[in-house]
Amino acid sequence: MKTIFDLRNVSYSYVGKIDALKDVSLKIGLGEHVSIIGSNGSGKSTLLAILNGLIYPTSGDFYAFDNQITEEVFDSIKDNEFRTYFRTKVGFVFQNSDVQLFSPTVFQEIAFGPLQLNISPQEVTTRVENVLEMMQITKLRDRSPHTLSGGEKKKVCIASVLVNNPDVLLLDEPSAGLDPRTQLWLVELLQELGAAGKTIITATHDLEIIDQISKRAIVMGEDHRVKKDGPTIEVLDDMALLLSVNLVHEHMHFHGKTVHEHIHAHIDGHKHEHGNN
Ligand code: ADP
Ligand code: MG
Fold first, then answer.
1. 159 lines ligand 1 (CB under 6 A)
2. Cα-atom radius of gyration of the chain, to the nearest Å?
3. Counting Cβ atoms within 10 Å, is residue 207 exposed (0-12), middle (13-18) or buried (19+)?
4. Hey, whose CA ends up nearest to atom 15 of ligand 1?
5. Ligand nearest 20 Cα, by number?
6. 275 φψ region: left (φ > 0), alpha (ψ -120 to 50), beta (else)
7. Predicted structure pTM score
8. Residue range 14-61, pLDDT digits in tens
9. How far apart are CA 233 and CA 236, in angstroms?
10. Is 262's pLDDT higher than 80?
11. Which residues fall within 8 angstroms of residue 48, CB to CB, at 6 or more apart?
12. How far is residue 37's CA from residue 234's CA, in Å, rounded to a whole number?
């Protein structure tokens, strides 16, 4: 498998003092489906921002498509050919849809990326219409993105990335705040895109979805280091690990390979018995 991302001893700290990543070394291959899991503040979003070339390692090296990504070459040089290549290859879905959405209509939002390329307006319209249909949001075409529901906004954000047909998708907590039906839709979409050969890297603390969308899970600890990098099913089986990184608590348990939060009905002094709790 061809390596597309290669991090070597990457550390990152904000404003030179807030640690977000510590000594992270990992490779991601073309076509891999990877979850990055960890509790709040463990460094998931920071890792995605590095992979997307939005920020640069404070120390250590990051290579993408065999090119080292540094601020000097990636950010400063105008008309950098590699940066243009990178931007067409890699798509990023932000955690907060409102950060991503800026156009007056859904159609214009999705058309924005393709219009930057050298393709005819008719071709852009065809592409946008295809993506609207694929995402089942054709009826939202003339709506203002900011008036949509959270789930609809997420679909528009994903559509505005997919319309560029990237090989690599980076998604930051894509299932957060979605209702169960939209969450299921998202899982199926990621499975379809994965089957179509896309590289998909998803940051999440939603353990319910990771075995459905990824074969490999990278576990970030609260110390901002990689605690484990291995098969998703092994990670889900390792209760001690999940407890140590604060991804489960004692009131959670597994059904098969899926984790469920145990719902306690504290009615009339009834207390649910849980092992020896
Ligand atoms: P996660 O996505 O896993 O919740 P983040 O990558 O957002 O974690 O954050 C890692 C650490 O970096 C946290 O301690 C967080 O408070 C800090 N951090 C994140 N973004 C910023 C920022 N823009 N400025 C300062 N500190 C930040
Ligand atoms: Mg985050």
1. no
2. 20
3. buried
4. 41
5. 1
6. left
7. 0.90
8. 998 999 999 999 999 999 999 999 999 999 999 999 999 999 999 999
9. 5
10. no
11. 36, 92, 170, 172, 201, 203
12. 13
